[in-house]
Design brief:
globular, Enoyl-CoA_hydra/iso, alpha/beta, 2-enoyl-CoA Hydratase, Chain A, domain 1, 266 residues, 9 strands, three-stranded mixed beta sheet
């Protein structure tokens, strides 16, 4: 499977999904997300696949939403919260939750910048292997919005670190992300894909039903603790952020767009 934005390969019981929009730091337009969801669904349905690896071509894993592309050619001239809610609940919330709940282990291999919606791609994965130069950030408070749509922040960073990152918009290094438990392994960038694949092959030797049950046990434990309900409720809080931004003259997205441009230039 290959689309304009996604490559999909399967070998040795491992499905590899590769973001392939390196010229814009794998910024996500709606077509990329739809293609990515199709690839996840293909891997989930294939009985030969036991493990899924998500990776990205280019220097950066993902600079987040493609703010230059907007919401596609069919978007209305006047944006409303109702319209944004429909677009985002499908692509930014339902997709991420579906990927999280695919009953097969998944590994994200990330390098370079992972900005805002870039987190929506790696957080649903069960394991994260990061290049030592990778950084993670969610600077959307500068855009008048309280955080990206899939609010894994508190679960991934811990409450106080999540607040610090959101309040300041600063980046977290791969080493710090490993210390707080968001990242499983940090490796030199030239070893990133090999490390992720070796880990995937190791896991693929395990019994697929036992893997499914182990994943379900951990995810259900998080859900009992409130993960699923929190993700849903904070998504609604995010939409009030859009209401605030829409009430501001010009919709203040320039801070996020400027950061994305800087990433693409590097």
């Amino acid at each position: 499977m290959k689309t304009e934005f996604i490559r999909y390969d399967q070998a040795d019981r491992v499905a590899t999904i590769t973001l392939d929009r390196p010229a814009v730091a794998n910024a996500q337009n709606l077509d990329l997300l739809d293609d990515l969801d199709e690839a996840w669904c293909a891997a989930a349905a294939d009985p030969e696949v036991r493990v899924i690896v998500l990776q990205a071509n280019g220097r950066h894993f993902s600079a987040g939403h493609d703010l230059r592309a907007g919401l596609g050619p069919d978007s209305p001239d006047k944006l409303t919260v109702e319209y944004l809610y429909g677009i985002e609940s499908r692509r930014y919330l339902e997709y991420s939750l579906r990927w999280r709940n695919v009953p097969k282990p998944s590994i994200a291999a990330v390098q370079g910048s992972v900005i805002a919606a870039g987190l929506l791609l790696c957080w649903p994965c069960d394991l994260i292997v990061a290049a030592d130069s990778a950084t993670f950030s969610d600077p959307v408070v500068a855009m008048g919005i309280g955080g990206v749509e899939y609010h894994g922040h508190t679960w991934e960073f811990g409450a106080r670190k999540a607040k610090e990152l959101l309040f300041t918009g600063r980046s977290m290094s791969a080493a710090e992300a490993e210390r707080v438990g968001m990242v499983n392994r940090v490796v030199p960038v030239e070893r990133l894909r090999a490390e992720a694949r070796e880990l995937a092959l190791e896991i693929a030797r395990m019994h697929p039903f036992a893997l499914r049950q182990a994943k379900r046990a951990v995810n259900q434990t998080l859900d009992v603790q409130g993960f699923y309900a929190a993700i849903q409720s904070v998504f609604d809080i995010h939409q009030t952020g859009h209401g605030h931004a829409l009430s501001e003259s010009g919709y203040p997205v320039l801070a996020g767009l400027d950061e994305m441009k800087e990433v693409i230039k590097r």
